[in-house]
Amino acid sequence: MSAFLLAQQVTEVADTVSTGEAVAFWVLAPLSLLGALGMLFARNAVHSALFLVLTMLSLGVLYMVQQAPFLGFVQIIVYTGAIMMLFLFVLMLVGRDSSDSVVEVLRGQRLAASLLGVGFAALVAASLARALNDVTPVGLVTPNTTDGGNVANIGVALFTDYLFPFELTSALLITAAVGAMVLAFTDRHARGTKKTQRELVEERFRGDRPGSLPGPGVFATANSVATPALLPDGSIAEESLSAIVETTAKERLSGDVRDVAGTGERPDAHALTGARADARADTPAEGTATKEGEE
Amino acid sequence: MNGNTAELLADDPIWLVLVKVVGIFAFLVVMTLFMINWERKVVARMQQRPGPNRVGPNGWLQSLADGLKLAFKEDIRPVLADKWVYFLAPVISCVPAFLAFSVIPLGGEVSIFGERTALQLVDLPVGVLVVLACSSVGVYGIVLSGWASGSPYPLLGALRSAAQVISYEIAMGLSIVAVVMYSHSMSTADIVSAQSAGWFFWLLPPSFVIYVIAMVGETNRAPFDLPEAESELVGGFHTEYSSLKFALFFLAEYVNMVTVSALATTLFLGGPMAPWPLSAIGGGVLNTGWWPLLWFIAKTLFFLFLFIWLRGTLPRLRYDQFMRLGWKVLVPASLVWIVMVATVRAFKNSGDFETSDFLIVLGIALGVLVLLSLLLPDRRPEQDENAVPVTGGGYPVPPLDLEVPKAPPRRKAVGAQPSGTSTSQGQQPVAVSSKEASDGDV
């Protein structure tokens, strides 16, 4: 590798841009800008995340083009592969239809955000100006060709000159990971928490009823689960009554009652076109409506 | 060799690069078609049935026919699906799968139409990372397909898959570290040439085992095929997909299998180098020209057969068992192994220690460990003071002051009926109790 890379002019690299590099830049830079803007303006949170992925990928390829292949691929593996994946994970769990809350929870958030934004922009502009005026570019040819190449030199730099910041970063990450675990971890086997299957079985057999509760008395005369079971002496078995059925308001069951009685709505071919809002197809109809509204 | 390979590849004309790209693409697609058929045939053989044997000679064109049929099927998009992401997901999962193969060295130096070149598309100083990066981008395909389908089963499959691939990618990356330490490079061509003295499969067996387990987890294959567990999730992340989009997922899965197998070959089995007895023939003539391609394909097929074998043999793991294996076994084991390898290398590099010295130290340490393990007290089975004493037959011993309840009145009424067998029925409780008593003596 060294021979092949040394064949390129070492001195020339400093201040020129080759055609290939220019083409790569003019393809990747608009793409990454597009991704950044898309991230800001996309309505859907997952789309935002995807636009950010586009930006990160473009940046990674830009690094590779500028002779930093290790940095480029690590950018893709770590940022695109791991961090954005975690973002997506959370977004997917939150649900696809949840939208941003318009109520501001933090007071003075806008002011603080704009101040910080302006400050950050100033910082970027200043460092960019300094990089363009005061710093003489040396290029990466020397570190890429001597002492084992790009990767080996990054390793050496990390474990000698930048050992302390490197370890500090790892300590920060470990603190975050341990903190997340402490917050999220629940000991399932501790006393007083969720019982194991064995404990449940033992408890059941120590109690006064090892068997199951009596089922409802569904006989030929009634096919409702609300029918109580009868004991041998003809009295009603209280345990067979479903608490849920007993407490359900009668109005909520009116649709079912109509269906059973045969006075409800009959199946109708018009329902297939979605033209008629069927009382019982409430939920799916709502779902499609919001979907169409989004688009 | 890397210098050689990189130099050889650097002056490839455009047409040669295109030929290689098309060649790799064709190789992967043909391997997919072959692999589907081979898998069905081998699994069928393991289950003592014929397998596909209708289309083409011996049924070898079955997967081609299936693929064509898939392409002409109706393409269905669910109403709740996210239009663009739903379309994008199969593409995202397919492209990195093909991309990863570009850094795999398929063979040594050959001449194609008079142009000297290496049988490899590109040789990067960070070649191994390319494969990892591609697999981490490929997860997006699975995750997005699950999310974009807008239905619960695919979403669950996608969540499982994301967690699985991320966890096993860590184990996979760690198993590669030892290889990189020994070969002093991340370039795949360098790693292959570093194995000319001995394959890393012999040198780093724990890394090899961890890599092989992680590669099965990484490609969502049985016994780790939780993202598409049919018995739980219908079809997993691709439940809602049909037609060509489904075919793309299928293609990506098999191409990924070929890629991780090829990487295993490259990292641990000497890549395109001829195996030992063959490499000695004719002063290594089988390691020149186009021969290495043959060895490479043979080794890759070995790993692919391993995939099929595992699928035909092992039941699917439960999700928590699977995660426990990844995080509590594979990752710590590879970390310990890396520390050991680094220690050995540091001692060797310092020059004060010979290999024999090191082996003696290792032997003494092992002996001390074994002696210490003898000192550990045996683990006693836990005694439960509430436990009922049990007879030899496994029945609980009744208490000595047991009062046998009187027979219920209804029984008596039955026993009082004047009939031939009624007397013996009436006495049954007594008979049973005597039988129980005799059981206790056994």
**How many independent structural domains of chain B?**
2
Query: Strands across the major sheet of chain B, in which order?
Result: 1-2
- Oligomeric state, counting identical vs distinct chains: heterodimer
| Average residue pLDDT of chain A | 77
Given as residue ranges, the uncertain stretches of chain A (5+ residues, pLDDT < 50) are 1-13, 276-295
Q: H/E order of the elements of chain A?
A: HHHHHHHHHHHH
CATH class of one domain in chain A: Mainly Alpha
Q: Number of helix segments of chain B?
A: 18
What is the percentage of strand-forming residues of chain B?
under 5%
Computed over alpha carbons, the radius of gyration of chain B is 31 Å
How much of the polypeptide of chain A forms β-strand, as a percent range?
Answer: under 5%
Instruction: Tell me the greatest interface.
Output: A-B, 35 and 37 residues
What does this structure look like?
- The complex is a heterodimer of chains A (295) and B (442).
- In chain A, 12% of the residues are buried.
- With 295 residues, chain A is mainly alpha-helical.
- Chain A has helices at 2-6, 19-41, 45-65, 69-94, 109-133, 141-145, 149-159, 163-184, 197-206, 243-247, 254-261, 282-294.
- Chain A has a domain at 1-96 and 130-146: Up-down Bundle (Four Helix Bundle (Hemerythrin (Met), subunit A)).
- In chain B, 65% of the residues lie in helices and 2% in strands.
- Chain B has 2 domains: 2-371, no CATH class; 409-441, no CATH class.
- Chain B is an all-alpha fold and 442 residues long.
- The model of chain B is unreliable at 419-442 (pLDDT under 50).
- Chain B starts with a helix and ends with a helix.
- A two-stranded antiparallel ribbon of chain B has the order 1-2.
- Chain B has helices at 2-10, 14-46, 62-71, 83-100, 127-148, 152-183, 188-194, 200-203, 205-218, 230-233, 243-268, 276-279, 291-313, 319-350, 355-375, 409-416, 422-426, 428-441; strands at 109-112, 115-118.
- The longest helix of chain B has 33 residues, at 14-46.
- Chain B contains 18 helices and 2 strands.
- Chain A binds chain B through residues 1-4, 44, 46-47, 50, 53, 57, 69-70, 73-74, 76-77, 80-82, 85, 88-89, 92-93, 96, 144, 148-152, 287-288, 291, 295, and chain B through 2-3, 6-7, 10, 79-80, 82-83, 85, 124-126, 129-130, 132-133, 136-137, 139-140, 143-144, 146-147, 150, 155, 158-159, 162-163, 166, 169, 184-187.
